[in-house]
Amino acid sequence: MRRREFIRLIGTIGAVWPRNLVAQPTDQLKKKMTRIGFLASVPHERIDAFDRGLREQGYSDGENIIIERRFWKNDPEQLAKFAAELVALDVEVIVAPTTPEALAAKALTSTIPIVTATADAVGVGLAESFARPGGNVTGLTAVGGSIKNLGLLAELLPGASRFAILLDPDNQYHSQSMARFEKAAAERRLEILPVVKRSVDDIGQAFQTMAIKGVQGLLVLADPIAAANRRKIIELAAQNRIPDVYYWREDAVEGGLIAYGPDLVDLNRRSATYVAKLLRGSKAADLPIEQAERYRLVINLKTANALGLSIPTSLLATADEVIE
């Protein structure tokens, strides 16, 4: 057969060959890839950190692993729906960075391993202990900053005695934290006022309550609602001239007065190591839950000046970042 006739024959075969058979090897490869679930609030840089951590462990989405991502936003029903979707897909691991997401996944499965990055897994009953979780939830935790943040308010405002805590009473981590706040406040002879925000619609009313009660400082507890409405909370705090303390660096960068909390980028990157261990045969029950290694104190001097506050030299000296 001449070369020209051979090329024409191959072209004819390619034209009539069933397309599904041509694509089959790629489809079959994807079906054989390990699938993990990722359940989180709206996308942000922490997700990039998790993906980077996976690559450091030798996994890359679309190449040797498939990540089924579900992003929810301020809707518990949507969160439950997405958790159910991931369980139905029978993924090998579910990554649920925060307490609400870990609780939503845990409510639906006791067999699929769940990796968290910040949840208080022991405090809300997801794990028996940090050293030996004993169930299907493991990962990292960011507990430990709560009392420090209350202390920051007291140090910043030595003459103040009435502080508000903006929280969601349906969030089990917040409920656990309040018990610690009440004990610490009693020791310091401080009055703390829990102010409720279950949704974005509650935020405006919460600040009206603070104004009526004569609140002198505010601690905002971290959760997806606070993160999604960061700008609204910061603006209302500024309008009401209430010094505000947060957990995440982003809050201070956006205009909050002070933020003290774990390095979330680092926590989410490290959570990928747990996924790798689980995929390689480790059991969630046997993987100790690790504490955050890095905490960051961020102070926004521009906000302090707008409030007419002088930041103590002791705080400035220990700050990891000062925004001017």
The CATH architecture of the largest domain can be named as 3-Layer(aba) Sandwich
Strand tally? 13
Structural class estimated from helices and strands: alpha/beta
What do the pLDDT scores average to?
Answer: 88
| Morphology call | elongated
Largest sheet, spatial ordering of strands? 7-6-8-9-10-12-13
Percent strand equals 15-25%
Distance between the termini: 79 Å
Give the H and E element order. Answer: HHEHEHEHEEHEHEHEHHEHEHEEHHE
CATH topology of the largest domain: Rossmann fold
| Tally of separate helices | 14
Number of domains: 2
Radius of gyration: 24 Å
Overall CATH class of the largest domain: Alpha Beta
The unreliable regions are 6-25
Largest sheet, in brief, is: 7 strands, mixed
